[in-house]
C-alpha cells in the first residue's frame, strides 16, 4: 500500500519520526532537571500518588484520555495516537536511562543543552505528526479540538497557540499541586510550545508534505 501511495508513505514516516522524537524529548527534559513539559508534569504529579512504573502510568493516562477524544472528535485518532499510547512513555524512560548511563551526571551547561534540545524537539515532533494527520497524542487532540470549535474571548476567536498555552498552564498547575518537578523548563514550554509548533509547521512540516503532493 505504501509503495503505491508515496504521499501516504511520507505521512507515515513523518508521524513515526515525530512520535519517536517526542519520546526522546521527554527523556531530555528529565535529564535537564529544570522541570518537565506541562503534560509530563501532569503525569509525574500523578506518579507521586500512584506508585507504578512511569511508562505504564503514561500509557494508562493516555488510554483514559483516548476515551475522551473518541467522543469529542474521532478524526484525531490514528497511527500516531497508538504509537504515543503504547510506546512514547517507554521511549522517554529508556532515553533518560541511556543518557544517564552514557554521559553521566550533566553539568549546568549540559542541563541547559538538554533543556534547549528538549524544547526544540518537542515542538518539531508535534509539528511533524500534526501535519502527517494520522492521529495525534491524546493530550494534543484536546486543544486541537477546542481550537476547531473556534472559542471566543472578548469577541475574538482564540487561535490554536493561545488554546495550547491555556491547556499547558492547566496541566502545569495540576502537576505542581501534586509535587511534580516544575521549573523554568516547564514555564518555557507552557508559554512557547504553541507558537513554536506553529512556526515549525509553517516552515518545515507543511512544506515537506506539500512537496510530497507535488512529486510525480
Short description:
78% of the residues lie in helices and 2% in strands. With 216 residues, it is mainly alpha-helical. The mean pLDDT is 83.
Structure description:
The mean pLDDT is 83. The chain is an all-alpha fold and 216 residues long. 78% of the residues lie in helices and 2% in strands. It has one domain (6-214).
What's the structural domain tally?
1
- Main sheet? 2 strands, antiparallel
Structural class: mainly alpha
- The tally of beta strands, per DSSP, is 2
Q: Into which percent range does the helicity of residues fall?
A: over 70%
Report the span from N to C terminus: 17 Å
Q: Figure out the total of helices.
A: 8
Helices and strands, in N-to-C order?
A: HHHHHHEEHH
Radius of gyration: 17 Å
Instruction: For the largest sheet, list the strands in their spatial order.
Output: 1-2
- Low-pLDDT ranges: none
Overall mean confidence score, pLDDT? 83
Beta-strand share of residues? under 5%
Shape estimate: globular
Amino acid at each position: 500500500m505504501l509503495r503505491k501511495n508515496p504521499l501516504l508513505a511520507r505521512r507515515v514516516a513523518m508521524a513515526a519520526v515525530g512520535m519517536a522524537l517526542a519520546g526522546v524529548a521527554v527523556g531530555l527534559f528529565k535529564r535537564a532537571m529544570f522541570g518537565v513539559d506541562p503534560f509530563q508534569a501532569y503525569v509525574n504529579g500523578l506518579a507521586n500518588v500512584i506508585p507504578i512504573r512511569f511508562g505504564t502510568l503514561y500509557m494508562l493516562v493516555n488510554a483514559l484520555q483516548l476515551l475522551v477524544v473518541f467522543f469529542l472528535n474521532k478524526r484525531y485518532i490514528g497511527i500516531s495516537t497508538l504509537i504515543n499510547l503504547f510506546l512514547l512513555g517507554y521511549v522517554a524512560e529508556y532515553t533518560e536511562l541511556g543518557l544517564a548511563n552514557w554521559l553521566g551526571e550533566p553539568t549546568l551547561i549540559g542541563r541547559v543543552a538538554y533543556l534547549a534540545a528538549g524544547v526544540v524537539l518537542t515542538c518539531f515532533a508535534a509539528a511533524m505528526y500534526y501535519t502527517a494527520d494520522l492521529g495525534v497524542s491524546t493530550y494534543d487532540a484536546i486543544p486541537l479540538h477546542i481550537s476547531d470549535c473556534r472559542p471566543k474571548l472578548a469577541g475574538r476567536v482564540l487561535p490554536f497557540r493561545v488554546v495550547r498555552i491555556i491547556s499547558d498552564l492547566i496541566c502545569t498547575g495540576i502537576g505542581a499541586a501534586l509535587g511534580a518537578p516544575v521549573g523554568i523548563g516547564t514555564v518555557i514550554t507552557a508559554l512557547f510550545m504553541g507558537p513554536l509548533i506553529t512556526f515549525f509547521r509553517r516552515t518545515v512540516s507543511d512544506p515537506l508534505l506539500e512537496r510530497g503532493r507535488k512529486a510525480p
